[in-house]
Structure formats: structure tokens, C-alpha cells
User: What shape does this take?
Amino acid sequence: MRKMFIPGLAAAAALALWEGTAGAGIFSSRGPVIAIVAGELYLGEAVGELGGTGTIRIQSRAKSDVSCSGKFTFSRDRGDAGDMQCSDGATATFQFQRLSLVRGYGTGSTTRGPMSFTYGLTAGESEPYLVLPPGKILRLERNVLVLADGMHAARGTVAPVAKTTTAPDVLLSQATATVIASLKQHRDLQTTSAGSIAALVEATVLPLFDFRHMTRLAVAANWRLASLEQQNALVGEFKSLLVRTYSVALASYRDQTIEYRPLRMAAGDSEVMVRSLVRQPGTEPVTIDYDLEKTAAGWKVYDIKIAGVSLITTYRSTFAQTVRDGGVDALIKALSAKNRQTDPAPVLGERRASVASQLGRAVGRSRRSYSRFTTA
Assistant: This one.
């Protein structure tokens, strides 16, 4: 079993990891960018900040004197978008979709033509998201990424790009370590900055979770009664509810040990459970297990079980009762009202409570508060 020392609720969620360089700060992460701009290959890097902003710079592989740089935002309020200015006078605007905090893909338009790109992905992982010129493929030529002719690449000098996917247990353990390093470096976040904790949750938890799948499971059979507009509203409100839940749990992080159990997974498996055990002196060990499924966007968490109790099941009965009493709109209204409330987060003073119990209490408080509101 692999052991990691972490402060507090290490497994509050499956969190995303960017393989940062030595120069990246605790609250910033740096990753590679692969872009196709007007049919030409550009390479570079992007740097994302926890506050929801970042910078991007890419260089043309065909024209060494042409580069583009700009800024982007990634947040629920400001959207995932940006713009760039190029050294040859061209301009670009783009939008992107996060696969995790530090991995994603996007499209855009420039004054020279269309643009597609990835960030934080290997070349092999990038291919499905890039719009390559007809007849061209991405290849490694003498360890340099190039656009090559797919039919006539020189034998012996060009190697196909290998496609790799991070194993789900590795993704979770590495990601947890990254997020906890931020909290360990900045202890004041846990006592004085609830907004920053929420920003940390939104930037790290959201991209790795399949919230639509989670919401569908929590709403259960009533999901089919909802229109597409209502379904989208439910996903948004349930996502916000879980952000609040995890924010409370993160505020209780203290030094503890988490053990990620060896993952038993066959080559063709599309669903797995990653098991972990949280230990703290003076308390009984508690299991926190993650259910993940393999999607086109990578491995996504769709449920968490704390001491065998499903997060989804915790909400399902209450949601069902609300729909029975007032329909789908009543559930949306109740969730929205709950998300507008400000909880005092009493766990801030509970220094030695166990990891899993803090998350369990946060979920329980959120559910009880929600129930009180719907029955008032």
C-alpha cells in the first residue's frame, strides 16, 4: 500500500494534478500546450493560477519568428475563455473545456484561420481534440513533435505518438497530494478565507467529477421527468451544493495518513473503485472509496462512499420526497435556496476530528439543512 502524509481530509474529492515544473508556485501550475492554428503546429505552455486566471504562450514550429501570447480565465462566473495576440499581427479568441484542473482542450478562431488546442495532455492524448490538416498526423521525429505526412513518413526516423491514460488510482493519489500541499503551505486558508477554500474546491474538484452522472443518480427515476433545461439547472445546483460540502470539509484538514489500496483493474474495464483508508492516531481507520468510470474525457468520479455510505444515496431519498411534494421545480428551488445560505462552518474549530467523519458531518449538515428548508 502506498502511504501519504496529508493534513486533514485528504480524500475529500478526486482532485486534478498538473505535473508542475520547478518554477511553478504552490498556487500556480504549468503545463504544455499543443495547438493547430490555420493548419500549422504551434507548441508552448500555459500557466494557470488558483484565482481563475492564467497566461498562454505558443510558438510556431514552421515559422520560428511567429509566436502568440495572451490570457485566459477559468471560473463558473467568467467562463473558460481567453484571447491572444501574435507577433505577425494576427489575433485569436478561444474557449476551452476542462478535463481536470490542468488538462483540457479548446477551439477558437484567429484572423488567419481556425484554431484547436490542448493543454496538459500528451501528444497521443491530444489527437482526438485537434483538427489536423488533411493527410497529416502528429509524430515524434528525433524526439521533436512534428506534423508529418501520414502516408509517407520516413521509415526509421519517425515514431508514432503513444497514447496513454493516467490510471485512476494514480490520478487520485497524486491529485490529493497536490491540493494538500497548497493547504499545508497556506494554513491561513483554513481559518480566515472561506472564499479561497471554495475557489480551491471549484478549481480542483469540479473538473474531475462527472456531476451530470452524479445528479442523475441522486435524482434517480425523477430525472426522466425533468426537461433538458430542468436537468441542467439540477446539475448546476447539485454541483454548488457539493462545493459547499467539500469547502466545509477542507477547512478541517490536519496531519493524517491515507493509504491508497492497490487497484485491481483489467485492461478493458470502464468502471473501477479506488479504495483508500484514512488513519489518525486515537481514532478508528475509516474507508473512503471512489467510484469512477472511463469516459471520452478520461476517468471521472461519480460517487464517493465514506465508511461504506454512498454520497449519492445520502441525498436520494430527500430529493425524491421533494419531487413528490412539489415536482422537479421544487427541488431546483430548494437546492438554489440552500446554496444561497451562508453556513458558519462549525468544523473550523474541530481540530482533531477524523478525516472521514468531517466529510460525513459536512454532508449530514448539508442534507439536514436542506431537509429543514424543504419541510418548513
